[in-house]
Automatic annotation (TrEMBL):
It comes from the Bacteria. The lineage of its organism: Bacteria, Bacillati, Actinomycetota, Actinomycetes, Micromonosporales. This is Globin. It comes from Rhizocola hellebori. Transmembrane segments: none annotated. CDD domains: TrHb2_Mt-trHbO-like_O (cd14771).
Length: 130
């Protein structure tokens, strides 16, 4: 199935915004109580971070470009530069994201496509060895 899918098709294949909402809500439910990750989110409420990640992922995977309309170019490394992100934060982030992806019960092909991207993106955010 994914031999013919591109990221632009993935949004529809997943089920659209509802699926990304489940993914991101589940992810932030884990982040909310994670002592390593929670300090990386300075807002009192995780709602704004949830909204930004959901819109970013929707846009990246071929949905509406609301993220760029509201925030401009993603510039992910630049936006995360103020925060110290080590391999430990990356692993914690991936742990919560893996749980969220598992909740979706995707086909193996769609799961792999999404997970490969999330692993690369998480590694790209690492900006400190300690």
């Amino acid at each position: 199935m994914t031999d013919q899918l591109t990221p632009a098709d993935y949004y529809a294949a997943l089920g659209g915004e509802d699926t990304f909402r489940i993914l991101v809500d589940e992810f932030y439910a884990g982040v909310a109580s994670d002592p390593l990750l929670r300090p990386l989110y300075p807002e009192e409420d995780l709602g704004p971070a949830n909204d930004r990640l959901r819109k970013f992922l929707i846009q990246y995977w071929g949905g509406p470009n609301t993220y760029s309309q509201e925030r401009g170019h993603p510039r992910l490394r630049q936006r995360h530069a103020p925060f110290r992100i080590t391999h430990a934060e990356r692993e914690a982030w991936l742990k919560h994201m893996r749980h969220a992806v598992d909740i979706l019960e995707l086909s193996p092909e769609l799961d792999k496509m999404l997970w490969d991207y999330l692993e690369r993106a998480a590694l790209f955010m690492v900006n400190s060895e300690q």
